[in-house]
């Protein structure tokens, strides 16, 4: 039985006054290094990644209802600085990927001490789970269930992110829309505090079509949910968020759609103030107008 001092907070700690979520993801690791290489032509060191994350926390964080970061590149410093006004989320996923390749699989990072993270200021933890219809499907489901239990035991909210990818040999026949729904149906049934979903069709469709697909997704998710921005073009993301929220989502937890074009810039703080903050404010206004409040689920 969970003791009173470790009871997880309500989702209010990650939400705006409207009950929707306008949260920033800054937990990218090797993918962020790849973005720097693409922007600058050079492979950057760990200190550059940490410096960028700190800049995002300082400039954009005060406008976010929640802020997600990993412990290797900034969580403890961001927690200590208290520049993020919304709820702080710690990433607990260990990512398996080839150098300069995509994430292929994940596990719970056993180095992350959830109790210590809560003591430092985290209100939630997040696990990315790569969902495939293959022989490892059961093992991944067990990992997700263990994550939800551990968060509850530590008094943290659980944010479970399902990213559907084709199994080996199934690339040509992969139905992304169906896979996103099946991943959501299976993972959200574990009752995480919040489910983080891909935007169907990569957001590259008329808004009415996105609304239709997001409504089908909403039907299989029994908990509050938000969308992520990976795989969606930056200019398409506001319409994707609006469609998802109109269909029943409670907002978004996004990174690349907010700050990707500032990576490698000569003046990162200025770029974040001039580009990223207005984008986040625009997205927050969409959330306030269209999102289903989390407590109306």
Model description:
The protein contains ten helices and ten strands. Helix 7 (207-219) crosses helix 8. The longest helix is centred in the C-terminal third of the chain and has 23 residues, at 268-290. The strands form two sheets. An eight-stranded parallel β-sheet has the order 9-8-7-6-3-2-1-10. 41% of the residues lie in helices and 19% in strands. It has 297 residues and is an alpha/beta fold. The chain is globular, with a radius of gyration of 18 Å.
Measured distance between first and last alpha carbons: 26 Å
Shape: globular
Mean pLDDT: 95
> What is the number of helices?
10
Fraction of helical residues: 40-55%
Question: What string gives the helices and strands in order?
Answer: EHHEHEEEHEHEHEHEHEHH
Strand content: 15-25%
Q: How many individual β-strands?
A: 10
Q: Layout of SSEs?
A:
Elements: E1 21-26, H1 30-40, H2 46-59, E2 66-70, H3 75-81, E3 87-91, E4 93-97, E5 103-108, H4 114-120, E6 122-131, H5 137-154, E7 157-164, H6 176-188, E8 194-197, H7 207-219, E9 225-227, H8 237-247, E10 251-254, H9 256-259, H10 268-290
Parallel strand pairs: 1-2, 1-10, 2-3, 3-6, 6-7, 7-8, 8-9
Antiparallel strand pairs: 4-5
In short:
The chain has 297 residues and is α/β, with parallel strands linked by helices.
Name some characteristics of this structure.
297 residues; 8-stranded parallel sheet; globular; 10 strands
């Amino acid at each position: 039985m969970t003791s009173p001092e470790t009871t997880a907070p309500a989702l209010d700690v990650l939400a705006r006054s409207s009950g929707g979520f306008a949260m920033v993801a800054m937990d990218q690791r090797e993918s962020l290094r790849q973005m720097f290489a693409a922007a600058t032509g050079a492979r950057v060191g760990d200190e550059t990644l940490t410096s960028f994350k700190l800049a995002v926390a300082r400039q954009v964080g005060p406008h976010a209802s929640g802020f997600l970061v990993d412990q290797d590149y900034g969580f403890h410093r961001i927690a200590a600085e208290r520049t993020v006004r919304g709820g702080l989320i710690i990433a607990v996923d260990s990512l398996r990927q080839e150098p300069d390749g995509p994430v292929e699989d994940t596990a719970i990072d056993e180095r992350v001490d959830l109790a210590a993270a809560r003591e430092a200021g985290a209100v939630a933890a997040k696990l990315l789970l790569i969902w495939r219809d293959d022989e490892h499907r059961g093992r991944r489901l067990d990992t997700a269930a263990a994550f939800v239990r551990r968060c509850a035991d530590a008094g943290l909210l659980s944010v479970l992110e399902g990213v559907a990818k084709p199994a080996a040999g199934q690339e040509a026949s992969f139905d992304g829309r169906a896979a996103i729904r099946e991943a959501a149906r299976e993972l959200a049934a574990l009752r995480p505090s919040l489910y983080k979903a891909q935007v169907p069709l990569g957001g590259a469709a008329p808004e009415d079509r996105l609304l239709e697909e997001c409504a089908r997704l909403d039907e299989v998710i029994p908990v509050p949910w938000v969308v992520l921005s990976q795989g969606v073009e930056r200019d398409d993301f506001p319409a994707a968020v609006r469609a998802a929220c109109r269909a029943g989502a409670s907002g978004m937890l996004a990174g690349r759609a907010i700050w990707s074009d500032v990576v490698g810039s000569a003046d990162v703080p200025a770029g974040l103030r001039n580009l990223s903050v207005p984008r986040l404010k625009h997205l927050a206004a969409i959330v306030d107008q269209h999102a289903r409040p989390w407590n109306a689920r």
